[in-house]
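Cast an eye over my tokenised protein here and flag anything odd:

===
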Amino acid sequence: MEFDFTALEAESRYRLLTNFVGPRPIALVTTRSAGGHSNAAPMSFFNVFSHEPPIVVLGIQPRPSGQDKDTVANIRRAGEFAVSMVDMALAQQMLVCGLAFDSDVDELEMARLSTTPCARVDVERIASSPCTFECRVERLIDYPRRVLVLGEVVHMHVRRDCLDAAGRYVNPETYQPIARLHADNYITSDRQFVLKAPAIADVLKASGRTE
């Protein structure tokens, strides 16, 4: 089947993109409102795009009315936010944070999530998350129905059991984030395997070519 995205309506584009580009990691984004309370919302249009500089990107659509969601409004005003990764222990609470509460409701409180202050940004982070990225806005790219938030990571918290004994690499036995596939379907990274690339000389030899 062929799909002309220049002629396809938005709902079908969304369905195809989110069904086939996955799994997508979940960012549980925390911000602070103008009134001083915390806001939390899960985003599955999220990934890391650079280490130099260290940049993560969120893709957030507006409300049906066209107004910014609370997360975007807070990010525009304060210029900072935190991204906590989600594992199975946080899955149900992440879903609660995604409900359409009024703007003056603290989703972290509703989800009964314990928080602690971030180190370098004025935002609460989720204490039990495997890891949290503290971010300052590098730039915002506005589209009519989407804003891309580029955040520079200025600090990172990692739960000690999610690292190996040397504290250098991730421990796959304990760091098992969940990610979204499509609709209400998710996946967890509890089944991992190693893939090593073959030697280029072996590939050239098998193809009958030499360097």
User: Anything to note?
Assistant: The mean pLDDT is 94. DSSP finds five helices and twelve strands in the chain.
